[in-house]
Amino acid sequence: MHKLLTDSPGQTMLLLGNEAIARGAIEAGVAFASTYPGTPSSEISLNLFQVSKESDLYFEYSTNEKIAMEVAAAAAISGVRSMAMMKHVGINVAADVLMTLAYVGVKGGLVILSADDPSMFSSQNEQDNRYYAKMAGLPLLEPSSVEEAKDMVAYAFELSETLQEPVIFRTTTRINHSTAPVVLGNMKPRITKGDFKKDPFNYVTVPAVARKLHVKLLKNLEKAEEIAETSQYNFTEGAGTWGIVCNGVSFNYASDAIRDLKIEQNVKMLRIGFSHPMPETLIKNFLKTCEKVLVIEEGEPYMEEKIKAFAQEEKLTLPINGKGNQLFSRLYEFDPGMARQVIANHFNIPYTPPQIPDLSDAPEVPQRPPNLCAGCSHRATYYAVKKAAEGMETIYPSDIGCYTLGFLPPLSMADIVVCMGASVGTSCGFSKVTDKKVIAFIGDSTFFHSGIPPLINAVFNNHNFTLVILDNGITAMTGHQPNPGVDMTEMNLSGYVPVSIENLVRAIGVPHVSVIKPFNVKKSVSAIREALEFKGVSVIISREPCMLYAKSLKKLRGNRFQITDKCKSHRNCINDLGCPAFYLRKGQVKIDADLCTGCSVCAQICPEHAIAPLPRPLPEAERGVAGKKGDKV
Amino acid sequence: MNITRLILVAVGGQGNLLASRVIGEAALLSGIPVRMSEIHGMAQRGGVVESAIVFGDAKSTIISDGEADMLVGFEPSETLRALKKANSKTVVITSLAPLSPFTVAIGKGVYPDLAQVQNIIRAKTARLIALDAVSLAKEAGNVMSVNMVLLGAMTQSKKLPISSEKMKEAIAATTKKAFVEINLKAFDLGFSAADKSA
Ligand code: SF4
Questions:
Q1: For chain B, which terminal residue's Cβ has fewer other Cβ atoms within 10 angstroms, N or C?
Q2: CB under 8 Å to A460, separation ≥6 — which residues?
């Protein structure tokens, strides 16, 4: 049985934040869940996916976040408790739904989880999604800890049903990826069947209806504000006159700092966990008891601006600070030391920060950036494209996935990355205004997610570029989730209908389509060359399973390779491929047999034919049986 | 209760997330408040994986520079890279088996000299326990047990509020059945190696 289905209320379990959120949803009786995977939210959906195989919870990996939100919205409108989860930038994709879904409302609870990523540990920006709640007019909840996250999910469902509105549940990476002991609660039974009652004057958002619905939304917002005033998630601690207002993880750093600085007697803290709409009366009353206020929030001055506006309305002149010089930054995540320092500065408390060792005499440590795995098919495709495009002036728009890692030397195969699908859209523009050869890269999952409409655009407007679809048959980057191209029988799941990328591309009317097997270097280079010479839209589908996924399915074939004494140390292998299985020992090129997966690309490009298979095939352990490399022992 | 802050740094695939898990479970078994956080987005792509573990009555799950009571590096150059987390009272444990980053192979960096790495750590912290965790793991029977070797060394240092017994109980409960025996042996080897280095 999945551990999140453990039915023993009161038991303490060590849970990852994302597991706690999934458990919270299960305790609340969530019966329908959808997502497009994205770090730092991925483990919530992964756990619900696993739970769905053992229960009547419906779960789906939707094609993109907009669809995930629509699918869940329909379930909630039909009265079923539903959850749509995504990373912060996923809300951008789903924003179109969100804004009008707020007008339409729901019947069963709908929780929309936005996993924000301050510091951009695995994201292209660090946008603060609290503003989405403000823009949409929806209630917003933000937990401070793993334990609180679990309980707050259940609260979010209740709130959603009380207001008949979706509720946005915002986390940050440090909640998603922290672990703490969590006390399990009771699990509500799941109600999996709903009903849709026709009600066009509330559901069909033509202008006349929408005007009415906006009035309803604003009324709901007033109701939400009333609830926020007394919500258990907006609370004060302490009785001093130095005010601190905080949210999310900042609450933890502030609490620890107050104790470390021994200013418990001086401080009064207001923790805001229900942060849209902001509890006006609660905040105004808080301000009236303070001499000076510090607002601690990662990201944008979302609370600070509102608090200052409240003070102005009350004609309060106390100093209120948050973001600024000597204060907190709008950049990156915070940490306990930083919060302690700013609190000490702001309230004039003597404080000596801990001594960070002076490392000026230490040798420089070589960088260790993440790299495409040894045997990754993307490396082979990049190499072949580079060879085929030799002598051409190129622009390489790329997209979001493992393959983005190919932007680093020695591959250097990405010139611009913006958002999901933008490789194809920007190619249309680049090819119009420059005379360079535009070659775009997109993965299979990203192509399904948002690469298809721009490809249609390219065909219709007769643009001139080559799109390489890196089809490795899985959503690799976020941990090998399925996408519409995946053969689900490999995961022992039935009832799915895989969509063929090739058929799709041909059906769109792309005039030049070719399919390559990237581990066959020569053939790939010549097929790519032909596609590059074509005037118009050409698509190359480079098809080879993700090595890491193949390994997990025990499908890795082929021999490992070694460097023989024919090696003349040209180092083409190392310098052109950048495969992490290579290393140098006393100036000699070597292959780490533990890392080599037998793709054979290096052997095909070595001018001396000095790379040869090891006599033995891959040992059992390398094929993905128990104890495989990278597996937890 | 007093707060103890522990940082684990490793290269993706070295098993530090499992080590954190074991420590967390051991704390739970011992009734000690514990919170942890990890940055592991790129773990499987050879990047650096860092876990922070905070024991005691703190709410924060991360550890600021200069504030770790113990720093454990699964790879010597990574231990050095993370040394800014330490202070003059920190106990540092490092494996001495290098995993050269790929940047070195393509000439974009030089792997630091191991003796120099140890001297620097010794000069700036309270104690350095240096051991070849890879050899010890192999001796125990599985090269993947590097994490267990280091758990043994951590426990020997007595800087953590967790006993040997609880740590072993957690290893038995958390790691795969087929590996428990090897893992416990690796733990013991790490424990005695740290003992000798005192
Ligand atoms: S996980 Fe798969 S797609 Fe990603 S780098 Fe590794 S082999 Fe390539």
A1: C
A2: none
3-class DSSP state of B159: coil
What number does the ligand 1 atom closest to the CA of A477 have?
4
Helix axes B180-196, B133-140, angle to 10 degrees: 140
pLDDT of residue B198: 66
CB contact under 8 A, B34 and A180: yes
pTM of the model: 0.96
Q: Are strands A512-516 and A582-585 parallel, antiparallel or unpaired?
A: unpaired
Distance CA A190, CA A374 (A): 44
Burial category of A364 from C-beta neighbours within 10 Å (exposed 0-12, middle 13-18, buried 19 and up): exposed
Q: Taking residues A352-374, what's their average pLDDT? A: 93
CA atoms within 13 A on the CB side of A596: 26
Please tell me the distance between residue B63's alpha carbon and the centre of ligand 1 in angstroms.
31
Instruction: Say whether pLDDT at A161 is over 70.
Output: yes
Collapse the DSSP code of A557 into the 3-class scheme (helix H, G, I; strand E, B; otherwise coil) and give the result.
coil
The three-state (H, E, C) secondary structure of A69-103, written as one string: HHHHHHHHHCCCCEEEEEEHHHHHHHHHHHHHHHH
Question: Are the CB atoms for A43 and A16 separated by under 8 Å?
Answer: yes
In 3D, which of A34, A62, A28 has the Cα closest to residue A48?
A34
Distance CA A489, CA A501 (A): 18
Residue range A42-87, pLDDT digits in tens: 999 999 999 999 999 999 999 999 999 999 999 999 999 999 999 9
Report how far residue B57's alpha carbon sits from residue A411's, in angstroms, rounded to the nearest whole number. Answer: 48
pLDDT at residue A632, rounded to an integer? 32
Sequence-distant (6+) residues with CB within 8 A of A556 are A547, A550, A597, A598, A618, A622, A623, A624
Burial label for A126, CB within 10 Å (0-12, 13-18, 19+), is buried
Residue of B nearest to A370 (CA): B47
Q: Confirm or reject: Cβ of A546 under 6 Å from ligand 1.
A: yes
Question: How far, in Å, CA of A83 to CA of A550, rounded?
Answer: 31
Going by C-alpha positions, the residue among A369, A457, A360, A353 that lies closest to residue A412 is A369
> Where are chain B's structural domains?
4-98+120-197
Burial bucket for residue B177 (CB in 10 Å: 0-12, 13-18, 19+): exposed
| Ligand 1 near A263 CB (within 6 A) | no
Average of pLDDT values for A534-559? 94
**How many A from CA of A515 to the centre of ligand 1?**
20
A32 strand-pairing partners: A58, A82
Strand B34-39 relative to strand A178-183, pairing: antiparallel
Cα distances (angstroms) measured from residue A625 to each of A388, A595, A621, A630, A631: 38, 16, 5, 12, 10
Q: Ligand 1 atom closest to Cα of A372?
A: 5
Rounded CA separation B92/A387 (Å): 48
| Buried/exposed B71-88: b ≥16 CB within 10 Å, e otherwise | bbbbbbbbbbbbbbbbbe
Give the pLDDT band of residue A633 (cuts 50, 70, 90).
very low
Chain A CB contacts of B36 under 8 Å are: 178-180
Residues of chain B with pLDDT under 50: none
Domain annotation for chain A: domains and CATH numbers: 3-229 (3.40.50.970), 234-346 (3.40.50.920), 377-552 (3.40.50.970), 561-632 (3.30.70.20)
pLDDT, one tens digit per residue, over A579-588 is: 999 998 888 9
Between the CA of A373 and the centroid of ligand 1 the distance, in Å, is 5
The answer as to CATH 3.40.920.10 being correct for domain B4-98+120-197 is yes
What's the complex ipTM? Answer: 0.97
Q: Of B143, B157, B144, B150, which is closest to residue B188 (Cα–Cα)?
A: B150
Residue A407 pLDDT exceeds 90: yes
Q: Is the pLDDT of residue A615 over 90?
A: no
CB contact under 8 A, B39 and A177: yes
Tell me which chain A residues have a C-beta less than 8 angstroms from the C-beta of B100. 366, 583
